[in-house]
Specification:
It is built from one helix and 30 strands. The chain is mainly beta.
Amino acid sequence: MKHLFFVLLSVSLCLSGKMLCSADDSNGSPVTPSTEIPAADSNAPATDSTDQTADSVFTFEKNETAVILKEAGKPVWQYNFAMIRHENVPENEPRLLAGCYLHPLYGFHQEILTDNAPQDHYHHHGIFWTWPHVILHQATGDVEYDLWTSNTALRQHLVRFQRQSVDRDSAIFAVENGWFVGPVTYDNQGNIEETPIMKEFVEIRTSPAVTRDGITGRILDFCLTLIPTDTAITLRGAENKSYGGFTVRFRPFGQKGKSDFITTSAGIAEDDMPEKPLEWADYTSWFDPETQNWSGATIFIAPDHPDYPPTWLTRFYGPLCVGWPGVIGQRFEPGQEIRLKYRLWIHDGKVSFDQINKIFQEYKDGFGK
């Protein structure tokens, strides 16, 4: 089946004429809304064409389970839209299959920054966004699911591709996913027949690598929009820790000392930090056991984020977890939009608190202008 993509340069995701996701460019400027794109066959999702200008450094590639973004021929990230079997996870584990996440994320020496289904936490998948407490308020009573560890019947599935476009300044990739209870079935057009309890719109806008003040970096802007469908839903983070939401699971090699790992808007982390309000957090390590080059990435919270700044859980073994809404749950009614924006700044080498904070303040000051 040939999949249909409507693409415009510098565009954002919109559904039924209503803007859902307005990712910000490097200056914080909003992008232009376009139109909804018809469903693609999620059983064989493949992007057959990309809107591309001749001078773009970006290209998209696809296979049966993932879309890969490359810059100047080298992979930048891979988005896994299909339910993938993880070989290191036991067969009887509910976490054996997972999809709708980004991994690998690459550094500038092609080192892999993220981890996927590690032995310590099978449910950690590169860059992902899940919640441990998802409470469905049904007329017959509340039912709670765990999207974080996948030990209940709730799963994320691809519903349709929305956009795949590149130009001189960016590459934009957007999909619609859904949160489904139980197995899903497909009609002869490749559409899921069941209704999700939550619609999930994901937009990732990637900017080319640039070197500034001696630091090479690349920006990924994420915009997540969640909309409950027929029933109100409460989202809540983990007790005493707050995790639940946008998460990056890093994949460091070796132990160089805690002072070399996590830097936050509150300073250099000296220990794991649960329930800590932060504007940003950075994880820097050496990810390649052969070269031992230093690299890392910083998560910036967008200034228009709900309950800004949200609480976090940071841990030295790899995860940086934005915990929103945190340990106190929030209820969302059917049709209510939940919009969450994050900027990921990938950098080569070590960076100081002052260097990161300068870049964050420029992002914050220019946001929306």
